[in-house]
Amino acid sequence: DGGITQSPKYLFRKEGQNVTLSCEQNLNHDAMYWYRQDPGQGLRLIYYSQIVNDFQKGDIAEGYSVSREKKESFPLTVTSAQKNPTAFYLCASSKTHSGANVLTFGAGSRLTVL
Amino acid sequence: EDQVTQSPEALRLQEGESSSLNCSYTVSGLRGLFWYRQDPGKGPEFLFTLYSAGEEKEKERLKATLTKKESFLHITAPKPEDSATYLCAIAGNTGKLIFGQGTTLQVKP
User: Fold this and answer.
1) Is the Cβ pair A108, B42 closer than 8 Å?
2) Residue B24 forms contact with A (CB below 8 Å)
3) Nearest-angstrom CA–CA distance, A60 and A75
């Protein structure tokens, strides 16, 4: 079945560590996204990619980095520069990058800072 | 600036007690309004897209409607399995998708 796989489901980070969240899709979608979800807030866009080897900052990109070397993969690195990284992270994809396209989401990764 | 506000933040219903969730929005050139369902600890799942005022869409016990200022998600005779957080999002001329903070629905048997 086509879908988005995020791993790990749960991740713990110590102060000063970088951690990488994996996102893989087999939907043949061109566009991929990373969102952050905090209690009581709407989903906030971190980064998005419209095509391989290209990506754009979203609303809250500071302290995060991404790469898009393959169409299927869009990993997110949470760097030590992100001061409040504890959150639920969601990867999504769509056929093309258009605000009017339906997003397909992964199951999410929960990051906790120790 | 495009904005989305959902109300109420939380809603508790008895099984069979129909109600509505509200999504108020301001947008420059609506290209689509989306409803998603999110279960605890999981990613959102797509429910509906509405494109223009007056449009309605239905799926089982859910019915989504759209006016120029707001959308309603009507839940008819809800069951406990309808318990979830319902997210509303809008896309306007900026091409940017804006999410509301969600309404958490709990349906008690």
Assistant:
1) yes
2) no
3) 16
